[in-house]
Amino acid sequence: MIKTDNHISQRSKSAATDSISEKLRVLTEWADAGIPWVHTDDGELLLNKKGDPKPDFFPTSIRKFCTWDGSQNCEFVRQTLPQFSSNSQDTLSRPHNAKLKHSVVTTIELAKAKRDSQVAVQAKRDWRTQLSLEVKELEQKRAALAAQIAEFEHRAMRAERELKELQAAHNRNVTHLTEELQSLRNENASLRRQGHKIFELPKRDRHDE
């Protein structure tokens, strides 16, 4: 009975160590390649209100490392994880696991640094993207304003040309009317002279008699 219990205990310890090693392997990969981003169940990148992606769960302490069993991750990431389970902190605290614990602590710090780097790069990329969009928007506004100015200048030139044409037509009309008025005055003066002559002829005829 004692041998059986010892055998079960050894198997349990081995399973716990295997689980820790598997989690450490995954975390090491993430610390090197990057913490995966949170995705929806359909595999779409999940963005926050600012439009930024968010790193998925990863253990940031010994306690969280021990309780990590994959359920804390999104479904999309969970499908890529090997099978591992939570373990007791006592397992890592045992003398024979001192080296393993040191590796876990070191890898956690590396993973945290990688996360911070990812977020910083993403923020920088978003800043550049936002700046690029703002510059593009300003260029579009400038182009639209330039088009409006060109249109206004074209309309102003056309209005000025039409005004000159109207002024020229007005001047021609004034000249024509002035000439016509003068012609009428001349004609009127001629008629008056003729009228005077007509009225003067009878008087001369009577005087001659």
From TrEMBL:
Key words of the record: Coiled coil
Coiled coil: 128-194
Superkingdom assignment: Bacteria
Protein name: Uncharacterized protein
Organism listed in the record: Congregibacter litoralis KT71
